[in-house]
Amino acid sequence: MSTLNEIKLTNAQIAWRAAQDIADGAYVNLGIGFPEMVANHCPKDREVIFHTENGLLNFGPAPEPGQEDWDLINAGKKAITLKPGAAVFDHALSFAMVRGGHLDVAILGAFQVAENGDLANWSTGKGGVPAVGGAMDLVHGAKRVAVVTDHVTKSGAPKLVSRCDMPLTGVGCVTRIYSSLAVVDVVEGRFVLREKLAALSLDELQAVTGAPLHLEGAPEDLVVPALA
Amino acid sequence: MDKTCKTVAEAVAGIADGASVMIAGFGGSGAPVELIHALIDAGPRHLTVINNNAGTGQVGLAAMIREGMVDKVICSYPRTRDAVCFNEAYAAGKLELEVVPQGTLAERIRAGGAGIPAFYTPTGVGTELAEGKAVGRFEGKDYVQERWLKADVALIKGEVGDPMGNLTYRMSARNFNPIMAMAATRTIAQVRRMVAPGGIPPEDVITPGIFVDALVEVPDARQEEDLIRAEAVYP
Q1: What is the chain A residue with the closest CA to B95?
Q2: What residues in A contact B85, CB-CB < 8 Å?
Q3: Residue A1: is its pLDDT beyond 70?
Q4: Mean pLDDT of the B43-70 span
Q5: Residues of A in contact with B179 (CB under 8 A)
Q6: Average confidence (pLDDT) over B132-160
Q7: A136, B129: Cβ pair inside 8 Å?
Q8: What's the rounded Cα separation, in Å, for the pair B117 and B174?
Q9: Full DSSP string of A101-157
């Protein structure tokens, strides 16, 4: 596993790869935490409009320290700024945008993703305080629901699995996975490998994946810039 | 018509033990802190509180929980780093918790205010949060039936208000405020600035006064996030 840790992508590199698939003019919701990094890596020549479920469209990066306005926050309760053409609205309207099919892309984190597109990302099922936020809403309605994630857990267990054994966030909702080793699509109940790190053989990748990786043509090399 | 109250204490007077209370805000943004603190002073108990979160720090909703006023919380995301009052009460078994997906929570409140007893949503289908709920199939896809959510009282925070109860909101402090205003038997608003009728251009009104029963001007209202960061404690 040490070699896997040496070659795997950083979170910034995973976020960069996910950002390359966001089209000019897309309306996008990024999950709290790691997925928020995707906003930093969108190609400069594309206009991407970010939605946050607490009621804003077209927000920008965090303000300078000391310039925070706590009435201007994102779903992660972090201070943000507005871009020209921003809009504010209430929570019901915000989730109408989510469920009503008006978002182009939602990008979320994952504990587990199954080959049928099931996602588990809100509860490990091991007790503690349950808290779901907007995750269950976000996985329904966006035209594409993508996941950014490490390919395996800290203990080395696959996060891409045949069936999730943690509590589900949504059934059959994920369309693409950007992992630290590969780009995998969910197609008709199967994982289809699109890209993998060149340093990794197909067998090595399969060995750390919990369900069969299918091929539709040769997978391309997963190539990203050096990013910490 | 004049729905204004002179003080926050007058505005929250008469909220009974056992009442269900919607409290607007998302985190500290849009939280009606001064109304909540007046309610703590009044001291009703055995309340059911509907909020997106479950309070952080030692002010606002968190302080209500610490003071033992709350029996049940209906929210989407109680787990926050500094939700110490909630965590303590929940771990001690003193607090019932109903976790609702955020968009479902918003739509249940909107439905309550709009007179729609139930609706179907894709959110939660096939998850443990949909267990025991009716499922309907529409155009080949499953949807969960969810019920409206109403309350005896809503505490909300506006930016500008007029004596008729018309309200505007500031930035993302709008969040749950306009829908909670619709869904309660008695809606009580605090506003930063009161203007005469006509002072809010009709096209700028976000919550029409028909949804508001009482309002009080709190010109020096604190932002809850500022209080939490200053580690304020109430009372």
Answers
A1: A129
A2: none
A3: no
A4: 97
A5: 90-92
A6: 98
A7: yes
A8: 24
A9: T--SEEEE--SEEETTS-EE-S--SSSS----TTHHHHTTT-SEEEEEE-SB-TTS-
Do residues A52 and B24 make contact, with C-beta atoms less than 8 angstroms apart? no
Task: Express each pLDDT in B119-130 by its tens digit.
Answer: 999 999 999 999
Task: List the domains of chain B with CATH numbers.
Answer: 4-117+151-229 (3.40.1080.10)
- Check residue A2 and give its pLDDT: 53
Amino acid identity of residue A20, one-letter, is Q
Q: Which residues of A make CB contacts under 8 Å with B?
A: 52-56, 69-73, 77, 88-92, 94-95, 98-99, 118, 128-137, 140-141, 167-171
> Which residues in chain A have Cβ-Cβ distances shorter than 8 Å to B79?
128-131
A28-59 pLDDT, tens digit each: 999 999 999 999 999 999 999 999 999 999 99
Higher pLDDT: A4 or B38? It is B38
Per-residue pLDDT band at B27 (split at 50, 70, 90): confident
Three-state SS sequence of B173-220: HCCCHHHHHHHEEEEEEEEEEECCCCCCCHHHCCECHHHCCEEEECCC
Measured between alpha carbons, how far is A185 from A80 in angstroms, rounded to an integer?
Answer: 32
Best mutation target, B53, B82, B102, to test chain A (most A CBs within 10 A) = B102
Domains and CATH numbers, chain A: 2-221 (3.40.1080.10)
- Which residues of A are annotated as catalytic? 53
pLDDT of residue A138: 96
Structure tokens at A8: 């795997």
In residues, how long is chain B? 235
